[in-house]
Amino acid sequence: MAVDVILGLQWGDEGKGKIVDFLAEKYDLVCRFQGGPNAGHTLKIDGRKYVLHTIPSGIFRPEITNVIGNGVVLDPFTMVKELQSLDAADVDYHSRLLVSKKAHLIIPTHRYLDAASESAKGHSKIGSTLKGIGPAYMDKTGRNGLRIGDMLASDFESRYKAIKTKHLGLVNLYPHIDFDLEGEEERFFTSIERIRNLRYINSEYFINNALNDGKKILAEGAQGSMLDIDFGTYPYVTSSNTITAGVCSGLGVAPSKIREVIGIAKAYCTRVGSGPFPTELNDETGEKLRVAGSEFGSTTGRPRRCGWIDIPQLLYTIMLNGVTQVIITKLDVLDTFDHIDVCTAYGYDNLITDELPFDIVNIPIEPQYENHAGWNQSLEGIVNFENLPEKAQLYIHHLQKLLKTKISMVSTGPEREKLLAVN
Ligand code: GDP
Ligand code: IMO
Ligand code: MG
Fold first, then answer.
1. Pick from 7, 126, 124, 19: nearest CA to 71
2. What's the CA gap between 416 and 276, in Å, rounded?
3. Which atom in ligand 1 lies closest to the alpha carbon of residue 20?
4. Based on the domain organization, do 39 and 180 belong to the same domain?
5. Most buried among 98, 206, 261, 313, by the most CB within 10 A?
């Protein structure tokens, strides 16, 4: 069978977790292919809220196997906390949660380096989640990293010490920051002990064997395409390939195995952390979006920056990902807006264009807006797309036309069941 992909088309937090949890039912395996505990995927099931960071969002479906792929960087401490929250919710994951031996480990000094490097950047800081993501991927590509499989080796501690010593040399290059290394190391080794009895696998074989056996696989992306290390708003990005290409390298599946690419986008747009955001609203409308959408980070609690939906940005990420269908989330957040704006083009360098400039960080962009009347009505209780207010339907159909891509579903609330199929 084939691999379908769910990934974010904006700057993250599009509602990927909710959609993966909803659609997981149709699959045999849900596999995370990149990122690490910088992600925060929120699920609302039977009135309870869960936030997953490393564990795939198919874990609440008892019949589904969940794989943490080789492309992921894993922090044992965050992992233990997530497992504890699953235990508290009586989720039996022991036979259904598998971890690639080739996934990389985040060790305490990765977080130390992340914090020291961000602090040294001053005003040009990335706004990292400080989970050690950048330094862990640097060690991976620098060929110094420790992998999950190494954790099981007899010389693990001496390899850990060697890399820690290297990191401490690097930390000294930055101005001093406080970091309780001793305490963090104690937590790290305790956590390693607690995750030792998880199931570790050669995930590339496991996944390809599953495909050969006719199993259906859903690949779950983290972050968003605008945070991609190659195509995002560099350097204000994360350190992995968040686009469809990351599925191949992050799970070990061939491009020919990928079928549907489901791109998730909010009905407006948000970003957390620093960097360019052409449609950002630094006014009361932006504040209204933040309050209506509860736009505060799932991982760090930071307020998210808010703005209108950006069609050039979405056309760019639809192109990069080969998106075959789009799901629009958080439509209900626009319920109380008299007017809704849609950015259809960018103005810069005396041009009106829908192409993103290379130097998006420094070139001032003048978004060109279309104005739409809002529907000013609650979407609560509406279970069919056809029963949405006419203006809400028009908004979705209009977006579909602008995006030149099928909008297959619309989400109208955080709860699992609040998802309407678009005809
Ligand atoms: P992810 O990182 O892409 O999984 O998204 P997050 O979980 O970080 O952020 C999405 C937030 O929006 C979470 O708090 C979700 O519970 C919530 N959410 C998801 N879909 C909807 C929706 O359709 N409407 C509303 N109001 N909230 C939603
Ligand atoms: P999910 O999967 C939103 C942002 C950070 C920062 C930049 C780099 O929940 O959508 P990093 O910690 O990777 O060094 O941070 O990327 N960022 C996210 N923003 N959602 C996420 O994940 C994010 N993961 C990282 O805020 O600007
Ligand atoms: Mg999130």
1. 7
2. 32
3. 4
4. no
5. 313
Ligand 1 centroid to Cα of residue 14, in Å, is: 6
**Tens digit of pLDDT at every position of the chain (423 positions):** 899 999 999 999 999 999 999 999 999 999 999 999 999 999 999 999 999 999 999 999 999 999 999 999 999 999 999 999 999 999 999 999 999 999 999 999 999 999 999 999 998 899 999 999 999 999 999 999 999 999 989 999 999 999 999 999 999 999 999 999 999 999 999 999 999 999 999 999 999 999 999 999 999 999 999 999 999 999 999 999 999 999 999 999 999 999 999 999 999 999 999 999 999 999 999 999 999 999 998 888 889 999 999 999 999 999 999 999 999 999 999 999 999 999 999 999 999 999 999 999 999 999 999 999 999 999 999 999 999 999 999 999 999 999 999 999 999 999 999 999 998
CATH number of the domain bearing residue 359: 3.90.170.10
How close is the Cα of 358 to the center of ligand 2, in Å? 21
The SS3 call for residue 2 is coil
Cα separation values, 6 from 15, 231, 254, 347, Å: 10, 18, 17, 31
| Residue 279 and residue 242 share a domain | no
CATH number of the domain bearing residue 43: 3.40.440.10
> What is the extent of the structural domain holding 126?
104-195
Number of folded domains that form the chain: 3
Ligand 1, atom 18, residue with closest C-alpha: 414
Listed residue (3, 5, 9) closest to 328, CA to CA: 9
Taking the model in full, what pTM does it have? 0.98
Ligand 2 atom showing the smallest separation from residue 275 Cα: 27
383 and 298 fall within a common domain: yes
CA 143 to chain centre: 25
Give residues whose Cβ lies within 5 Å of ion ligand 3. 13, 40, 298
Alpha carbon 332 to its chain centroid, in Å, reads 21
